[in-house]
Prior knowledge:
Structural class: mainly alpha
Amino acid sequence: xxxxxxxxxxxxxxxxxxxxxxxxxxxxxxxxxxxxxxxxxxxxxxxxxxxxxxxxxxxxxxxxxxxxxxxxxxxxxxxxxxxxxxxxxxxxxxxxxxxxxxxxxxxxxxxxxxxxxxxxxxxxxxxxxxxxxxxxxxxxxxxxxxxxxxxxxxxxxxxxxxxxxxxxxxxxxxxxxxxxxxxxxxxxxxxxxxxxxxxxxxxxxxxxxxxxxxxxxxxxxxxxxxxxxxxxxxxxxxxxxxxxxxxxxxxxxxxxxxxxxxxxxxxxxxxxxxxxxxxxxxxxxxxxxxxxx
Length: 293
């Protein structure tokens, strides 16, 4: 039983890392109905910018603030140069635009900051901690606390501020929101900026664990089953989906892996997502689309 609890808890904590990546997708999808394929590249760019500034001798706090300002400037540019000209186009057109954007961001990051692997030290030691008989990772525990704090801040921002209420209005009924004077372009700039900052947090944690390198952008592939399970329009769903994926992966690798020769981590999350598509296509917390026929 202690092995099961340890595996389960370790999976839950690791799943928060997936949730942090998925939250960025949820923010943009909820605001514009577009699946932002470039989120992984933005995550990579944010982490690479931060570690490059830090390696240049800039203090941690100053490097963090400078990275955030760069992400905000980039978000404004994306809205003005890509999203605004493509307004009222089909979701597929916008998706292809974000796909192209992902290659532009990755190529620009490589051209400006190089392609070598950077080690990122956040001062968080990945050492084991014992809670009773359960062994957990200190790094995973810090990542879980970070995810909880971030979700709390986002919940307050989108539920208690004027900007957050405007975002919800845009998401619920764009035409009605525009008719009462809500500036959709400004809201999109803010949402992309917030998604970039969330990507920075996720990129810093993932970069500290496996190094800041260009394969970091592929972490978005693991966010897909998280979104399918939790729902594309719910931040809480992103957290729940990440926890489910993390715990299921760990349990499958421990109990199913030995029976089939291992390697379940690379595919089990997608199998779980496929099951959810059959039984609950909108995800646990997603909004079901109701169309009049």
